[in-house]
Inverse folding.
């Protein structure tokens, strides 16, 4: 029976421990994103939408403080040009408009119903709220711009939950590497890490989009993603090594 030299044993634990330390440090980034999502982005987005939803029309006459008002003001703008490019990725829907106090590009999520009918020289009525053009209208057609506040906190909650689970996974895998560098068990990419990562990614987009479309509360989004990922993680971590 031979005894492995102490130096050799120690050297074999250096790389796994460094990897574990790196995982722990990198996990701070998604953890910070999770905190920001639930402490700032989510409540700010909900409050902004509610303020927009209850905003009243501005009084007639010139804007006393410019266009950065809490009320909804309608102004006339001229269309300089449009871009309507539908692609599998990175579609581009824009309108360049110009007026007495505004000239710039407006982004849209879709080509219609109004954008694809506009031509250079057309005059449109823009709805302005807090300095942002939130909609354009012409001849009975109205289309929202990407600046309009939307009641979609579910996707913010989904992203924050996914970042939190990613941070938790990184911390767990990193801690195991630090404590037991030569015996990580199921806490490896091949055994469970890959499954957890892609399950988390799929749950964020899948559950997030479904809850947006159905209008379910954002709390349902978070609880469902947690249930899916933690459930898969439970079975993945308990699965025998030979089953993968």
């Amino acid at each position: 029976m031979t005894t492995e030299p102490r130096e050799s044993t120690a050297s074999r634990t250096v790389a796994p421990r460094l990897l574990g330390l790196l995982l722990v440090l990198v996990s701070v980034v998604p953890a910070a994103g999770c905190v920001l999502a639930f402490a700032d982005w989510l409540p700010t987005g909900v409050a902004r939408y509610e303020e927009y939803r209850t905003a009243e029309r501005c009084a007639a006459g010139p804007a006393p403080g410019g266009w950065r008002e809490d009320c909804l003001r309608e102004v006339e703008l001229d269309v300089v040009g449009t871009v309507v490019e539908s692609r599998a990725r990175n579609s581009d829907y824009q309108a360049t408009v110009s007026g007495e106090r505004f000239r710039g590009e407006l982004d849209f999520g879709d080509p219609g119903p109004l954008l694809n009918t506009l031509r250079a020289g057309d005059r449109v009525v823009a709805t302005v709220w807090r300095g942002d053009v939130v909609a354009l209208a012409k001849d009975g057609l109205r289309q929202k711009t990407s600046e309009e506040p939307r009641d979609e906190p579910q996707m913010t909650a989904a992203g924050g939950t996914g970042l939190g689970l990613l941070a938790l996974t990184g911390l767990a895998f990193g801690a195991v590497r630090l404590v037991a560098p030569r015996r990580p068990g199921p806490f490896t990419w091949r055994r469970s890490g890959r499954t957890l990562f892609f399950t988390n990614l799929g749950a964020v987009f899948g559950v997030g989009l479904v809850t947006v479309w159905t209008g379910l509360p954002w709390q349902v989004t978070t609880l469902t993603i947690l249930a899916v990922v933690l459930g898969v993680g439970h079975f993945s971590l308990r699965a025998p090594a030979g089953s993968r």
